From TrEMBL:
MF-aspect GO terms: metal ion binding
Name recorded for this polypeptide: VOC family protein
Keywords: Metal-binding
Alphabetized PROSITE patterns for the sequence: VOC
Organism in which the protein naturally occurs: Haloplanus litoreus
Segments traversing the membrane: none
């Protein structure tokens, strides 16, 4: 069984990161914590991401999602794209997920010093496992 250490974030898919950030700032007082692009050599395109803090929750506003950029999923409709959970070991979390007959969307991969993996949850909900060495060591 995968036992997350804590909830990490909600991933929000949008067609316009700037517009969505402006809306969430103006209506919910969202604070931009980080902003930029992420990419890997084996991805089809970059991902534009803004990390927002709203109340006590982080919201990752993305266009496109990492799984779209990787070519694993053709398209994701705007709205909630996935739920992220911090785990001690992303590889072990995916192995446990598979052992429990769970389906994997993207095998664990590394960006910077952080490991990520995406899995399918019930009814198609996507779940992200995030391994931050600084938080788990």
């Amino acid at each position: 069984m995968v036992v997350p250490e804590k909830f990490s974030h909600v991933g929000l898919r949008t067609d316009d990161v700037d517009e969505t950030v402006g809306f969430l700032d103006g209506h919910l007082g969202a604070e931009v914590v980080d902003r930029g692009t992420i990419a890997r050599d084996d991805w089809e395109c970059e991902v534009t991401v803004a990390v927002l803090s709203i109340a006590d929750t982080e919201v990752f506003v993305v266009d496109p999602t990492p799984y779209e950029a990787a070519g694993v999923v053709e398209s994701v409709q705007p709205g909630i794209a996935h739920y992220g959970f911090v785990v001690a070991d992303a590889d072990a979390a995916v192995a446990d997920w598979i052992a429990a007959d769970g389906r994997v969307l993207m095998e664990p991969f590394t960006l910077g010093d952080t490991r990520y993996a995406f899995c399918h949850g019930p009814d198609g909900a996507r779940i992200e496992f995030v391994e931050h060495p600084s938080e788990t060591s």
